[in-house]
Amino acid sequence: MIQFLLNQRLISTNKAASTTLLDFIRYEENLRGTKIGCREGDCGACTVLIGSLKAGKVEYISATSCLTPLANAQGKHIVTVEGTNLPDTLNQAQQAMVDCSGTQCGFCTPGFVNSMSGFALTCEDATVEKAISAIDGNICRCTGYKSIERAAVKLTEKLETKDQKNPLEWLVAHAFIPEYFLQIPDRLAQIQTAYATTGAVAVGGGTDLYVQKHDQLHEMDLDYLFDKKELNGITFSGNTCILKSSVTVTELMENETLLQAIPNWYHYLKLLSSTPIRNIATIAGNIANGSPIGDFTIILLAMKAQLILTNKTNNSRQVALKDFYLGYKTFDKKTDEIISQIEFEVPNHGTRFHFEKVCKRQYLDIASVNSAATIATNGNTITEARLSMGGVGPIPKYLAETAQFLVGKELNTATVKEAETILQTELSPISDARGTEAYKRLLGRQLFLAHFLTLFPETFTMEDLI
């Protein structure tokens, strides 16, 4: 049995664990406010809130229910738009949308309302920027967004006096959420919080697998890893960051140690998908998907990442990420192995990191070409270089020859231009829907130069390198 709270009700079901939360909500529980749109996590029409009990408090995230396995709802509070309704009036998110004319056809509205309600539940320092970020996974085809942005601004203004000591009580008293939320922590404490499985196919957040194999998943023997305690957590040993495989992009994005160690870390990771996807997408899943343009794979390649692979008998081995990809969607990984741990080097004094991504939209899109660089210097000499690039070959590319050339060289324009010539010999892009071969080679050049312009503004100008 899978047990969880759906709005106010306790759900106990033996429905297939591979069923998406979206299908269960609509077809088993007849809650039709959660809409079916793209089924790929892009539109946000199916957005729900997922609350997990941690240290006696419930922490909520927004998530796309179309990509969430039912098993990952075990022991949690699932909130649909119906679950945010107040008895006699609109809640504050709904009222803001009405006051600002934020809805026309209404198809996307439940997703926006849920995302805004989630922002109200989680924000500690309400700002307009954070409010708009909270709805970055929701697409509207009618309003042109400005009216919805105005609704987000209005909601933010009402949250400025939120009581952080007793946030739930304050939110209930000020009509942001219904009163039953106050009982959720005690009710979740009575539910078993783990769903034990040992299937053949491992699935974490599901954001890749449920896009690629939605129809086949019901026939698969799945092992749900998302909430297994042994596969969660971020720790540090010296300047090495150690991730368990179920760590999400959001968890890594908001880690205080990384935010302090890597300038622009938050803004780099904002380029990766949308908030509801980042909340449930795992780092290991991004690696195991094997996409030639996987954003986190490109970032970790430039951070000298190592993978720990563990099989069903608990035997482990270590593989460098740069050696993990043998060909397109082909890995140095046995069938019964999972990525149980990821280790990477955090840039320290004298080491600089930079990530670049070009796509048709700045946010919420798959890259045409992406690239990352870690460069260490001693005075004006490059002592270490690690470079990676995606979208320029069948696998995420570690630019070994270019990096090797740079080591020991003087940091100047001639060095960078000669290195870019070597870079082009390592690229093998093809023409496809995201651009021609020539265009991708041009992007590769521009992103490579952008690393140096950004990391060493005291040394290079645009005129020097272009």
Automatic annotation (TrEMBL):
Domain of life: Bacteria
Keywords (A to Z) from UniProt: FAD, Flavoprotein, Iron, Metal-binding, Oxidoreductase
PROSITE patterns registered for this protein in UniProt: 2FE2S_FER_1, 2FE2S_FER_2, FAD_PCMH
InterPro entries: 2Fe-2S-bd (IPR002888), 2Fe-2S-bd_dom_sf (IPR036884), 2Fe-2S_ferredoxin-like_sf (IPR036010), 2Fe-2S_ferredoxin-type (IPR001041), 2Fe2S_fd_BS (IPR006058), Ald_Oxase/xanthine_DH-like (IPR016208), Beta-grasp_dom_sf (IPR012675), CO_DH_flav_C (IPR005107)
Pfam families: CO_deh_flav_C, FAD_binding_5, Fer2, Fer2_2
Limits of the FAD-binding PCMH-type domain: 173-349
CDD domains for the chain: fer2
The protein's name: FAD binding domain-containing protein
Domain 2Fe-2S ferredoxin-type: 1-84
UniProt keyword Metal-binding, yes or no: yes
Keyword Transferase set for record: no
